Amino acid sequence: MADHHRTPTYPRANKEHRCIYCGGPILVGEQYTQQTGVYEGVLYRNRYHAECYEACADECSYYGEWEFSPYNGEYPARVEAILNLRRAVRLGSRQKDG
Questions:
Q1: What's the rounded Cα separation, in Å, for the pair 30 and 49?
Q2: Is 96 helix (H, G, I), strand (E, B) or coil?
Q3: Which residues contact 60 (CB under 8 A, 6 or more apart)?
Q4: CB-based contact 49:26 (threshold 8 Å)
Q5: Which residues, listed in sequence order, are joined to residue 17 by a DSSP beta bridge?
Q6: pTM for the full model?
Q7: Residues near 34 by Cβ (< 8 Å), separated by ≥ 6?
Q8: Are the C-beta atoms of residues 83 and 27 closer than 8 Å to each other?
Q9: What is the C-alpha to C-alpha distance for residues 57 and 87, in angstroms, rounded to an integer?
Q10: What is the pLDDT of residues 36-78, one digit of tens each?
Q11: How far does CA 89 lie from the centroid of its chain?
Q12: How far apart are CA 50 and CA 27, in angstroms?
C-alpha cells in the first residue's frame, strides 16, 4: 500500500492536544496544524504547534524525507513558559499539602 499524506489543515483545538513534534500541549482555542494520511499502511493524524510544523518541515527538507522522531523537537519558547508555569503550580500545591 502506498503512503498518502493529505494537505495540512489549520483547526482550532476544542480540547487540549499534544504536539507530535515537541510533545508540548496544544491549548484549547489555539490554532494548530493537523496532517492526516496513511503511512506504511497505517492511518495517522498528527497535530503540531504552528512553529513546530515549520521546524519539522525545515528539518525534514534538510534530510530529504518527511520522517522524524515524535516528541523529540525543542519546545517553542511560549510552550516552555506554559510548562514551567504548570510545574510551578504543581510544586506549589505539593508544598501546601506537605
A1: 9
A2: helix
A3: 66, 67, 68
A4: yes
A5: 26
A6: 0.84
A7: 8, 9, 10, 11, 45, 46, 47, 48
A8: no
A9: 30
A10: 999 889 999 999 999 999 999 998 888 777 778 899 999 999 9
A11: 23
A12: 12
